Amino acid sequence: MQGFGAEYEHLILLVEGDPPWLLDVGHGDVFDNPMPLEDGHVQVESVGEFALRKVGDDWHLLRRSGGDSWMPQYRFTLKARLFRQFLSRVAWTQVAPLSAYRNRTIVYRSAGAGRLLLNTDTLTHLQAQHCSHRKVEKVDYLDVLSSVFGIELQDCTPVEVLLMPDGRKAMVEGV
Known about the structure:
By secondary structure, the chain is α+β, with helices and mostly antiparallel strands. It has four helices and eleven strands; from the N terminus they run βββββββαββββααα. The strands form three sheets. The chain has a four-stranded antiparallel β-sheet with strand order 4-5-6-7, with no helix packed on it. It is globular. The chain starts with 12 loop residues before the first strand and ends with a helix. It comes from Kistimonas scapharcae. This is Arylamine N-acetyltransferase. InterPro entries: Arylamine_N-AcTrfase, Arylamine_NAT_domain_sf, Papain-like_cys_pep_sf.
């Protein structure tokens, strides 16, 4: 179906209760707070609004921000899955040339009224009505990791390797 990723591409958690609750621990512009699994539920978050829609046996998570149209984020079913069913997709994500995660460095954290995302050399602050971007120069990269994300890298891989395409492969190969 157009607008949705491959099966086993995303893992969400369903917590049983009355009502059941949906949790997403992924990065990016998804909801931070547990969401009741109810058809038509709309939840306002720091980066926009999220809605759940029941479509046949599937559930769809939709997102909009700043008055934009609802955009599909992913679809899911309530069918129980085994972790091993996700392994081939996880492997693809790590090694496939077309994987969004292979050729860049991604660091993410929730930041009160929004989210902070470092995507290779761009620091983005996501909020519901506003999104700002700032290019991070090589000389500032380790400082941004430390001051914005609390990540201290001492005696580590050179920044050039973190910023290069397929940098993780180079780290493993000892470049």
